[in-house]
Amino acid sequence: MIRSYFFVATPADPQMIFSKRVVQVFTPRCPRETMPETNSKTYGSRLFHVKRVTSVFVVFITFKLLSLLLSLPGIFNEVTQNDAPPTHSEFIRSGDYKSMMKRAKDVVGGTKELDILRRNFERNGFVIVKPRFPEGVLEGAKEFTEKVYTTCISNPKPPKECVNFHQDRYTHNDGVKSLALDADVLAVLAALNGFKPYPFQTLNYPTTSKACTHSDYVHFAPHPRHLMCGVWVALQDIDPRSGPVFYYPGSHRKDFYSMQDFGLQPRQHHPHNYPKYQDIMEASMNISGLKRHTAILKKGEALIWTSNLVHGGPPPEVERLRRLSQVSHYFFEGADYNWAPVMSDVTEDKIIYYSEEQVKRKWHATDVNADERFAMSKFREGHCHDSSVPQGIAGPCDLPNRPPRVFSEILVHENFDGEVVM
Ligand SMILES: O=C(O)CCC(=O)C(=O)O
Ligand SMILES: [Fe+2]
Asked: What is the residue range of 114's domain?
């Protein structure tokens, strides 16, 4: 048997890896059930896992190198992120906002209830609401999600389109589209954020996504950084054995982390880059003292989370048990810009931005057919500072305390059976 050593460098906050330079021992990560047994001593959580013979020396040298780099003055210049609402937002003075607030109050039961909802959202980073979805809309989205199951999961010969059959099918399916554009959902999102929401992505998961620990900020990063929400709608009563979504209330108040903040290169450069980010997020949650909750929702209930809430879809107790759901992700009009950290290369000045114009065209264009809309891109390739970033606003590359890129080379992610890299 190969003996392994686990090293950890995570106090409550991943950023402290670099400021405290702690080296401890690690435990396995998500999904716990499928991790191989290890006889190494464990404390806290696993950050990186190195095989004995080759890696002890490499780790020693690298930490020496990191310590040296970190001790140099001015290596990491602090750049203040502007998280104050943009001054150009007029939305909350509009008639549109007033009518949305009225609707949001109707959804939750009144003015006092809406205040409580807002406070909870701010404190916990999530809320659960029951929008008044028309039954036909819920059923339409449910039927489509069942179709994803029969076409792509239970089908012994799934067709090629199963690569993304669950994603962005609002282009083809009215139920999926109407659920994401539901007026009650939009009103509650506007009430919680003070900006006008618009959906930019839908995901119809018939079973658990098996997505390991992450916050959506790593995928969809707005500026100001809280201006993105996920809305997870249960399309059936959720069975606790089906791998219900987990989340850590309060985790949104920790700093916002994307791969670059851990010295990791973009996802497309290596299949393990994103899993390494997830390893660190899992490790930081395990020792954060925050409690892990699960969303065992009733049909029609919606879990709304903010961009930085840490969450995931764990492996199920019963494989392939249906967990029919639709997640819609929203940006907000009036944000300074939106970008995709997971795909961007900040050290090479290659940034992938979401184009609000292209997103809206993909959703609403009437001069093209559904297939053409599905093929449209939402992205625009750009630079750290270009016309996407307003003057005087911190850009995607201006994050503080970014560690050197070499860090991604020394982290080791161990694949496990059935791992879904997503
Ligand atoms: O439904 C799930 O399992 C989680 C999906 C998720 O993380 C997301 O859509 O942001
Ligand atoms: Fe997510």
From this structure: 91-404
